[in-house]
């Protein structure tokens, strides 16, 4: 529990609106935009963190370590009082009790939390001791939303007033459908012999009640997902979108939208770089993309893919800032693990943050859909796990002769060895500390570094030049 004097005052301000209207705290069934006023003399900050997956003990400790540094965190002005908001775009955790406990810890540190469910919250198990299991994922999500409402965590749109201009926070519910993936699959001989229906936990753990009885509904068989779920959740967003756009038209303001799933295929890895060839079939929704195009937010935050991303596409900034599972924290989510929650807004929007893969596509190579030039970490992994693929991989010259060393694939990641090795991470984890809520273990380093080919320092320079123009 934080011992800020102003915490109670700020909390009272956040709930004032509901008391005035004499209604309960708005839940997921609320179609309106709820106004929240930043208390006088306070400064708004918005933090972003997705895919906390608190079911992993290590992740919970990590989260607590970040929260502990919150009370000391003031890079600019130690005297200012903050109104701290957290954006949580899903996959906090599955089990009801643990979900409630971790959300409660977060509500003790943030004045306002906005949450949008992920697939892990939709798994129809993890009920409390003595409770009957949820009969399907809709009932499970209703339980999750009840917990949010009881803890005064917003699951419907919010307008934050009291800053330079109103800020409208818009949740966009979503689900993936296989047809979102419009890039060609790898040739059959380069696809590992796995049955996606058995490998994707959602197919076992999510149940869709009467929606599953709709004609042509598919969820699992052949690894396919029809677009029924994507459409169903997108329909729920319509009332919210109208309310938010109406309000923006009448009274102005910027929109920050957020979803768990991915809106655009440009925001995930190509198949040649992905070990799991099924990922693009269980990642995104084109209904979500269309809704974002209509809403035209300043920023859209998303979750789910566990490959961090920050880039601008057609005028909209897309940010994915995940923690992911403990294994991923030494790989694809290493930056997040080392450097903490993203401070997305603090009087102004944070600059676009460096992420290896957004950098790769923005500055190094365009996408090559259909390319069968598997990355070495993919081809080597396939050869090890599926010996029957080895001859074909060899024939295509896709098995590099790697020296055995701990960072053996680093040389192949964006920027090469010097931008991915242990030294790089030691030095660069704190590169944008001003825009982080770091775990307490992080120690700041001086910047820029002395490596003339450093892609992170180069990226930061580009951003600063762009901002000063
Ligand atoms: Zn996740
Ligand atoms: Zn997810």
What distance lies between the first and last C-alpha atoms, to the nearest angstrom?
A: 43 Å
Name given to the CATH homologous superfamily? Metallo-dependent phosphatases
Give a count of the beta strands, DSSP E runs of length 2 or more.
13
With helices defined by DSSP (H or I, 4 residues minimum), what is the helix count?
14
CATH class: Alpha Beta
Tell the overall outline. globular
Order of helices and strands: HEEHEHEHEEHHHEHEEEHEEHHHHEH
In short:
With 469 residues, the protein is of the alpha/beta class. The chain has 14 helices and 13 strands.
Q: Could you explain the architecture of this structure?
A:
This protein is α/β, with parallel strands linked by helices and 469 residues long. The protein has one domain: 4-Layer Sandwich (Purple Acid Phosphatase, chain A, domain 2), CATH 3.60.21. Helices cover 32% and strands 13% of the residues. It is built from 14 helices and 13 strands. The protein has helices at 7-20, 57-70, 96-107, 137-150, 196-199, 201-205, 228-251, 286-295, 334-339, 356-364, 376-385, 390-395, 422-428, 455-468; strands spanning 34-37, 42-48, 81-88, 112-115, 158-161, 167-171, 254-258, 299-302, 309-313, 316-320, 341-346, 348-349, 436-437. A seven-stranded mixed beta sheet has the order 1-5-6-7-8-10-9. Helix 8 links the parallel strand 7 (254-258) and strand 8 (299-302). Helix 3 (96-107) packs parallel to helix 4 (137-150) and helix 7 packs parallel to helix 8. The radius of gyration is 22 Å and the shape is globular. Bound molecules: zinc ion (ZN) (2 copies). One zinc ion binds at residues 51, 53, 91, 118, 304, 306. One zinc ion is lined by residues 51, 53, 91, 118, 304, 306. This is Calcineurin-like phosphoesterase domain-containing protein.
């Amino acid at each position: 529990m934080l011992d800020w004097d102003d915490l109670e005052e700020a909390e009272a301000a956040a709930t004032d609106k509901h008391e005035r209207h004499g209604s309960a705290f708005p839940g997921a069934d609320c179609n309106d935009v709820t106004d929240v006023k930043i208390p006088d003399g306070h400064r708004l900050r918005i933090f972003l963190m997705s895919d906390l997956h608190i079911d992993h003990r290590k992740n919970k400790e990590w989260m607590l370590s970040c929260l502990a540094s919150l009370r000391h965190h003031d890079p600019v002005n130690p005297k200012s009082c903050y109104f701290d908001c957290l954006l949580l775009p899903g996959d906090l955790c599955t089990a009801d009790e643990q979900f409630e406990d971790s959300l409660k810890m977060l509500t003790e540190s943030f004045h306002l939390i906005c949450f949008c469910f992920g697939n892990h919250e939709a798994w129809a198990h993890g009920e409390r001791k003595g409770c009957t299991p949820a009969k399907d994922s809709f009932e499970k999500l209703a339980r999750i939303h009840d917990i949010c409402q009881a803890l005064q965590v917003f699951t419907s749109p919010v307008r934050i007033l009291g800053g330079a201009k109103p800020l409208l926070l818009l949740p966009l519910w979503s689900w993936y459908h296989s047809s979102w993936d419009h890039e060609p699959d790898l040739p059959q001989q380069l696809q590992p012999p796995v049955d996606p229906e058995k490998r994707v936990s959602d197919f076992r753990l999510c149940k869709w009640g009467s929606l599953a009885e709709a004609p042509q509904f598919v969820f699992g068989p052949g690894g396919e997902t029809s677009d029924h779920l994507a459409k169903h959740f997108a329909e729920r967003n319509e009332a919210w979108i109208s309310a938010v756009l109406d309000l923006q038209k009448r009274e102005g303001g910027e929109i920050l939208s957020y979803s768990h799933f991915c809106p655009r295929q440009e925001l995930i890895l190509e198949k040649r770089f992905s070990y799991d060839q099924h990922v693009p079939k269980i990642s995104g929704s084109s209904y979500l993309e269309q809704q974002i195009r209509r809403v035209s937010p300043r920023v859209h935050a998303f979750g789910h893919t566990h490959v961090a991303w920050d880039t601008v596409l057609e005028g909209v900034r897309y940010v994915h800032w995940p923690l992911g599972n403990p294994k991923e924290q030494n790989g694809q989510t290493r930056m997040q693990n080392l450097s903490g929650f993203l401070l997305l807004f603090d009087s102004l929007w944070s600059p676009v943050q460096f992420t290896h893969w957004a950098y790769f596509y923005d500055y190094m190579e365009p996408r090559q859909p259909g390319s069968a030039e598997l990355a070495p970490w993919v081809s080597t992994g396939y050869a090890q796990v599926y010996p029957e693929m080895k001859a074909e991989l060899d024939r295509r010259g896709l098995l590099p002769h790697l020296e055995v060393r701990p960072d053996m694939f680093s040389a192949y990641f964006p920027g090469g060895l010097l931008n991915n090795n242990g030294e790089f991470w030691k030095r660069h984890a704190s590169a944008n500390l001003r825009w982080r809520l770091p775990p307490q273990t992080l120690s700041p380093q001086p910047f820029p570094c002395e490596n003339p080919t450093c892609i992170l320092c180069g990226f930061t320079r580009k951003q600063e030049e762009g901002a000063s123009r």
